[in-house]
Amino acid sequence: MKSIRKKVLSGILVGIMSGALLAGCSSSGGDSSKQSSGTKGKTVKFVSIWNESTGVGKVITDLTNEYKKDHPNFNLEMEVVQQTDLDQKLNVLAASNDLPDLFVSQSNSQLLQFVKAGQIIDIDTSLPSAKEALLPATVTGVNNILGTDKLYALPTENNIEGIWYNKKIFQDNNIKVPTTLDELMAACQKLKDKGIQPMALAGKEKWPITRQIANIAMRKAGVNVIADANSGKVSYTDPAFVEAAKMVQEMGTKGYFGEGVTTIDYNVANDSFLNGKAAMYYMGSWATRDLNDDAKNTLGKDGIGFFNFPSVNGGKGSQEDYLMNFGTLLAFSKDKFDDQTADWAKYIASNFGDYSMNKLGNITGFKLNKTTGDIPVYTKMVTDEMKKVKNSGLWMEYNFDQKTSDLNQNNSQLLLLGKMTPEDYCKQLDDAVKTSLKK
After folding, report:
1. Residue 220, exposed/middle/buried by CB under 10 A (0-12, 13-18, 19+)?
2. Which Gene3D superfamilies match (predicted)?
3. What do you get for the CA distance between the two ends of the chain, in Å?
4. Nearest to 235 by CA among 225, 224, 248, 222
5. Fold of 161-324+396-437
6. pTM of the entire predicted model
């Protein structure tokens, strides 16, 4: 699997910063849809990890309410499931050939299984207006992640990942933004010695732990190391991974992530940082939805900064390499897809980028037709940071099967707590990947 290259990233940036792009809100596309479809009754079922008032759930709910003004008989029925239960839920539905009209997928390997089984639509053919609403570079990126030539899912975001930091805590403790991993570790120890939690981490979610490992390995061995390891070109027992695992374990056992880190979920970690209880917070640029929210962010519009994961002395990676993703993906059931669904989906896709930016300050892979007012402070910070990106790396689980993903994430908690050696962690992961590749 190849990484998303500079030309992809530059295309994303051009699209993000454009004031007006190509198509109008709902006028383009060659879908077999009809405006009159709203005169008929239709209920679309959506399996989501967000409720109607948060994240992508809010975007789709609010846009659906706008759509219903001209299509009063159209309804959206949302079923919210926990992230930890989502994959199993979709597997059960797929086994009975009952995938919902629209669903969110957090497992690329699972989604690819649905593609191979012919259970989800080919967006290129069945919903071309949605593809046209995306930035071309985003289409390339999603196809690269899934390893397909056609588009089978829509992105929900366009993210870089890195470390947010509390400017006042850094200034009060005479800490400069770390540019090397040694400097980051020294800053963490200095803060810990002063009774300040160095970093908030949502260890209960597990993936933030493996992201730390991936970033360090990427800095040591280069931007393609995860893709190479997942394809069998490189072993997960390579020194880059073992050393990365050792470093993350050290951060955990020294208390840099605080007490009870594996019991801390996303919301608790997020609130801890935004309320000034931790100096740093590893998270993706999707965090801007809360950073831009004055009710949630007590640190203010100039209280938080951002830096990419630090480099490693003598490493092959660069701070111009970023871990990047397109959020959880949205897919449509092939059996349930009809003209009415297409008409609604066309409206959602055509307005998704504008609504996300103007209402929530979120960057997506969708084109902007028009923006209203100034770009929120922290969203602008991310778009400026994206100008520094030259290469993009992938996260460890991007194409793992469910068994390998579960093993890796469960073991990452044991590693962080010092209950598994870095060598055992890497060996078990390497064995699982090799077994998966033989299937």
Report:
1. buried
2. Periplasmic binding protein-like II
3. 17
4. 225
5. D-Maltodextrin-Binding Protein; domain 2 (3.40.190)
6. 0.75
